[in-house]
Amino acid sequence: MVLRIEARWEIPYVHSAGEHATKFFEALKEKRILGVKCPKCERVLVPPRAFCERCYVDTDEWVEVKDEGVIETVTINYARFTGLPEPPYAVGIVKLDGADTGMLAYLGGVDLSDWKKAHEKLNVGTRVKAVWKGKPEGRITDILYFRPVEE
Amino acid sequence: MKVGIVGIGMTPFGVHEEPFYNIAYEAAKKALEDAEIERHELDNVVLGGYDVSVGRTISNMYTAPAAGGYLKDEIRVSDDALYALALAYMRIKSGIFDVAMVLGYGHCSETPMELVELLTLDPLFHRDTGLSYQMSYAMQSYAYKMKYGVEDEVAAEVVVKDRKRASKYEYAHVREEVTVDDVLSSQMSVFPLRELELPPWSDGCVALILAEETMAKRINPEPIWVEGLGWNTENYHLGSRDLAELSSTRKAAQMAYKMAGCDAKSVEAAEIMDLTPYHHLMALEALGFAEDGRGEELIQSDFNANSSGGALCTNAHGTTGLFLAASLALQIRNEIDMGISHAVSGYAAQNSVVAILGV
Amino acid sequence: MKRVAVVGVGQTNFRTRRDDKTHPELTREAVSRGLEHAGITMDDVDAFVFGTMDPFDGINCPDRWSSTAAGLGKPFMKISTGGTTGLTTGIAAYQHVASGLFEVVVAVCTQRVGENVDAQPVLNTAVDPIYERHSGVGAISVAAIQATVHMQKYGTTEEQMAWVSVKDHENALKNPYAHIQKKIGVEDVLSSPVVSSPLKLYECCPRSDGSVAIVFASEEKAEQMRDNPAWVIAESSISDSYFVGDRPDLAVWDSLSIAGRRLYRLAGIDDPKKDIDVAELYSPFTIQEILELEALGFADKGEGARLAEEGVTFIDGDMPTNPSGGVLCTNPIGATGLVRLGEASLQVMGEASNQVDGAEVALAHAWGGTLQFHALMLVSSHKKLRR
Fold first, then answer.
1. Among chain B residues, CA nearest to A14
2. Which stretches of B186-276 are DSSP H helices?
3. How would you write B74-103 as a 3-class SS string?
4. Strand, coil or helix: what is B250?
């Protein structure tokens, strides 16, 4: 019978978003989603970042993108994991209108109990729109999830 | 084939508002500008830095693109970034690569660093003793102090000298000068170390462009050659070591001198990772500048140590060693011909890396 | 460039928890086995390179503790690059010898995922806390989103993906070190609970404790040490940008294609299907083996899903893939990449537990981050690919 010792890591962090990302979060308070446009390759990058990795230049040109776009891919999670939300929940990559890169986001507004049926409503190519928090706080969670746009 | 430093980029060190990856981008950009080359002329990126201090496992996911690594070959040493210089050297020396971006990142302001280091203690024997990182360096300082009878004033003098040099160095973090009295009257913090005898926790990044000889000469007519490298590791169990000496530093230095084909006499300057003033003295001895116990004699001389102010003035945990090496490289660019730079990591300087640079 | 070979491989039994040993003791188990296989002792080793992911093992920088079993008093370096760690550790050790600075270097990786009650909280810290950590993406979901698009774009079916799992489990039965040793059929996979759609439980890897050590030697030493070293022909690795949403098309692992082509150029490979005899790929989830085979040129785009179903990647097929049982059956995360290299090396040495007949050229692969990193190494029983 070996000795087992329980331990727990509780390390507090205060993560700085930096000046650049702060602009993005300020805009969320107004229910606006911003990206940055690279001066060289002209891609509109969402989430925004301080520099374009490919062209290696500062990205200071801010562009507003729509809070609506297209699902690039999706998955529905049914397993319980520590530190992650209660299942079932759907996660995917959404390319917002005006952006050249996709954004990781929650997807919802659909019954997730049967994944095959859910995939008919949340599929690659489905048009979705953001559902916003009533009173946005300037955090990424102001966007509650993206839901399919009614045709 | 020689391997040389052709570009140097450093951010100022301090407490920064920007996240570590944006700071890394700044340092890398500066190094490319200094070398006058573009990102696409790099063929690989070698990173050095820790995960837990920034609260992100696989932190190199963020620093690789920041260092210019987009779609390039990249690798990361998870230890002081002076190791990254050593690995980059081997990658070039082997002929596999020609031009490397070596980037070190150190970011201490997002979390209590003592806790991060405390968690390196195994949960079976050491963690419950509450032995902090500083305490391990303090114990080592005390062992050395008692063995050789080093007076408090001597330790204070080391701090005074480091601070004086940092006051003239634009990249250093803590730059206020102090007197011996200031040091001796500061609060006893971790016996026998007073508050002013402990290093700061800093944020900042360092980038070096390292190149194979023929490429190096095309990029920069006066590369700073990596003449010697050495690294070594001691026993993790503190009780199994003679804490009064830095034996991993000694072995690392031996390896470096052998590679460089010289000894301490050829070295004009040293950049020492002195996390305490006693470690400054111990390192001088381990690097071969003084006999055991006689490091203090160098403090009274005009021996050229720590033009950067050393770790007592700048300690971006994860890149302090590379900061010191870069500072040495700047000295070699401007004044001297050969110098030695040093880094330690782990509790009570368990690990050591030594680099000898020259023209 | 100095020619380098793998001359010894040591592995521990991979299990959910190795309660019987501490971190350094587990490291020692692998290192001793590796040294024994190489026919050398600790004194013969010039340097160590240690790889592990922080902080899965419940201790930050466990290398400091484990170095007592792997490099005390010697040059010792720690590599950590996410999922690719195992292979980049091997790559770094290879580079130690290729540089001419050292003659015999041991790469060792130890990971004790079982120390965690649940490894997910650690994995959660990989995801950017500024923009993405709220998004509920676990490790499995990252692969699941690849599966969704691949199915949509190329018509890959759940059944085709299940065949990858059947193959890996069948292979693992022959590997005494493998974690999961269980015979399963397609129906077992398809009826297992959906974890993150469309991936089901049996399409996902376990989390394993264990250690692996590989001894690298210079050409001169290697020839003294054994008749059948596994010569390192080439290696390559690549880093993409961080954000998962940046990838132009998740149904195509284009960054792996780029790394693969670089490797093939260096190695002198004209057609991987013909020139490579066996591959140990990092596929903790069925869909990833399919994506990897396509990206590496073993199958055309969209055709990868047929390979397992048609028996091509089984042990007696034309392109045996993961004869060790792969990552799907054994995943000590930071060590996994080095296990791939170990198994690939044993194949070309002719000493693998599930040996592919006449294997002379083997490929080892690992990926890491949120689909960001890849590492590759090619080994052969010959010093050069073209004789």
1. B110
2. 213-219, 247-260
3. EEEECCCCHHHHHHHHHHHHCCCCCEEEEE
4. helix
Q: Which domain holds residue A139?
A: 18-148
Rounded mean pLDDT of chain C? 94
How far apart CA B304 and CA B267 sit, in angstroms, is: 10
For C129, nearest residue in chain B (alpha carbons):
B56
Angle at C325 between CA C321 and CA C330, to 5 degrees: 130
Is A3 among the domain residues? no
Chains A & C: contacts with CB separation below 8 Å: 123
Torsion angle of the four alpha carbons C298, C271, C339, C49, in this order, in degrees rounded to the nearest 10: -140
pLDDT digits (tens, 9 = 90+) for C127-136: 777 777 776 6
Q: Does domain C4-118+206-225 have CATH number 3.10.180.10?
A: no
| Residue A13 belongs to some domain of the structure | no
Output DSSP code: residue A98.
T
User: At which residue do the structure tokens 């919802």 appear?
Assistant: A108
Number of domains in chain A: 1
CB-nearest partner of B75 from C74, C75, C92: C92
User: Across chain A, which distance is largest between two alpha carbons, in Å?
Assistant: 64
Contact A4 C19 (CB under 8 A): yes
The pLDDT tens digits for C33-82 are 999 999 999 999 999 999 999 877 888 999 999 999 998 999 999 999 99
**Distance (Å, whole) CA C323 – CA C174:** 9
Domains and CATH numbers, chain B: 3-112+201-219 (3.40.47.10)
ipTM (interface predicted TM): 0.97
- The residue with greater pLDDT, B128 or B324, is B324
Cβ-Cβ contacts under 8 Å, B86 against chain C? 77
Determine contact, residues C41/C359, Cβ cutoff 8 Å.
Answer: no
Selected for mutation to probe chain C from A46, A77, A106, A139 (highest C CB count within 10 Å) is A77
The answer for A109, left when phi > 0, alpha when psi is -120 to 50, beta otherwise, is left
Please report the beta strands in chain C, taking only residues with DSSP state E, as ranges in sequence order. Answer: 4-11, 47-51, 76-79, 104-112, 194-196, 199-200, 209-218, 230-239, 278-280, 361-368, 373-380
The predicted pLDDT at position A82 comes to 76
Smallest CA-to-CA distance from B246 within B289, B310, B309, B196 is with B289
Taking the domains of chain C in order of start, what are their residue ranges? 4-118+206-225
Residue identified by tokens 């990126």 is B45
What distance in Å separates the CA atoms of residue C121 and residue B95, rounded to the nearest whole number? 41
Instruction: State the pTM of this model.
Output: 0.96
* A80: in domain: yes
Residues 197-236 of chain B with CB under 8 A from chain C are: 229-236
Considering only CB atoms, B95 lies closest to which of C1, C58, C126, namely: C1
Give phi and psi for C78, each to the nearest 5. Answer: -115, 125
Contacts of B128 (CB under 8 A, 6+ apart): none
Q: Distance between CA atoms of C77 and C161, rounded to whole angstroms?
A: 39
